[in-house]
Amino acid sequence: MPYDTHSIILGTGRAAPEKILTNADLEKIVDTSDAWIVERTGIRERHIAEPGTGLTPLASEAARKALEDAGIEAEQIDLIILGTVTGDYTFPATACLVQEQIGAKHAAAFDISAACSGFLYSLQCADALMRSVGYRHVLVIGGEVLTSILDWSDRNTCTLFGDGAGAAVLGVGQDGSGLIASHIQSNGEHAHLLYNPGCGSMYPPTPENVDQKVNTIRMEGKEVFRYAVSSMLDGLSKVLARAGLTSEDIDLLIPHQANLRIIQAVGKRLDLPEEKIFINVGHYGNTSAASIPMALDEARRSGRANKGDLVAMVTFGAGFTWAAALVRL
Ligand SMILES: CC(C)(COP(=O)(O)OP(=O)(O)OC[C@H]1O[C@@H](n2cnc3c(N)ncnc32)[C@H](O)[C@@H]1OP(=O)(O)O)[C@@H](O)C(=O)NCCC(=O)NCCS
């Protein structure tokens, strides 16, 4: 029997490693240039975690900040869902490690693997579980240490990605605010256009496989670009239709921060003015599942997204997966 409830965002938080890698730094590692990277992607710098530190510290920091912002104690959290493809270990779920770090003693915890769509997939699952099970407080996190799976000799990929984590605490809504509509979708036909072959059961970390750099990102950039724009538009049109709204009703669009040109193409097709599109890809690069919750937190704390605003979030990633959500703050 579904509970007569819906989720609202009570608080948000974000964390990024201190160390910054600029395009000038990358020029010393691979055959690239600041001008090329800025022109094709809009990325100027990215934050990178110290090797061997894992995702748990970043995800836990983002979670603690979100809890503080929400005014909720960790012990009140019923469920933690973490979207990531770069968790600390193959198992257990990094969500369990975060649970231990923040002291969310009463929570269930699991990870979701949906690449750059991880946060919005987690958000929809959280909302659905709040409605069906009756959870009152859910911590939704998106976090990645993508620099741990980059091939630093491949200029096609190592220039694009960065590390970070973002989190949101969801509570039960009473007024018209909260998650209004959400859509998630996948198309496995294109799985091999963007993927990391190792170190799962297909390519376990044998010495031979490690030599072949199996545990690094492989990507057909042009193809990914094409599908990214059309899929993001598809996701947005579905949530707007479901809510009976149009793009004119959007106060702020928070798109996945993969590439400035993808963001601009989506904004143009929706006819959205620049001030209604949140962009921070220049400072973080593509942080995959972390990009939307980090941007959402920055938008809220900087006054770009305020109480009562209609925020549209949209993403696209490996799988292919894509997702969109409309939230009234
Ligand atoms: C990766 C991407 C920036 C490449 O831009 P592009 O305009 O498509 O460039 P191409 O892939 O056609 O490559 C053109 C040339 O630039 C080169 N190039 C690629 N990366 C480069 C870099 N960092 N610096 C300099 N040259 C680079 C290529 O090797 C190629 O050279 P060639 O013609 O001698 O073979 C672009 O395709 C993209 O952003 N795709 C989407 C990626 C993405 O967002 N993925 C995550 C989705 S969640």
Based on the model shown, name its key terms.
Peroxisomal Thiolase, Chain A, domain 1; 2 domains; alpha/beta; 13 strands; 11 helices; 34% helix; 4-stranded mixed β-sheet; 329 residues; globular; binds coenzyme A
Summarize this entry quickly.
The chain is α/β, with parallel strands linked by helices and 329 residues long. It folds into two domains: 7-174, Thiolase/Chalcone synthase (Peroxisomal Thiolase, Chain A, domain 1, 3-Layer(aba) Sandwich), CATH 3.40.47.10; 180-328, Thiolase/Chalcone synthase (Peroxisomal Thiolase, Chain A, domain 1, 3-Layer(aba) Sandwich).
Number of domains: 2
Low-pLDDT ranges: none
Order of helix and strand elements from N to C terminus: EEHHEHEHEHEHEEEHEHEHHHEE
* Rg, Å, rounded: 19 Å
CATH superfamily of the largest domain: Thiolase/Chalcone synthase
Q: What share of residues are in beta strands?
A: 15-25%
What gap, in angstroms, lies between the N and C termini? 27 Å
Structure ligands: coenzyme A
**CATH architecture verdict of the largest domain:** 3-Layer(aba) Sandwich
Going by helix content, strand content and strand pairing, the class is alpha/beta
CATH topology of the largest domain: Peroxisomal Thiolase, Chain A, domain 1
Output the CATH class name of the largest domain: Alpha Beta
Specify the overall morphology. globular
